[in-house]
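note to self — DONT lose this again. spent like an hour looking for the file last time. sequence + predicted structure for the chain T wanted, 70 res
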Amino acid sequence: MSAEEPLFRVVRGVPTAEELAALVGAIVARSRPVAAPAPAAVSTWARSARPAAATPGVGPGAWRSSGLPR
């Protein structure tokens, strides 16, 4: 492809400058790589839960300490 050869051409009809601009904008937007989606936000309900490491230990009195505030 030479520098003088157009990237696309209108085969039928006489488009206006606005129509050509819309076509070029659509082609440029379509040819860009898709951005990675934003990470999903963690709900306030899930963040307020106790961490998994806060589980009560095993042994004598563990059942009693499981009900105590942390």
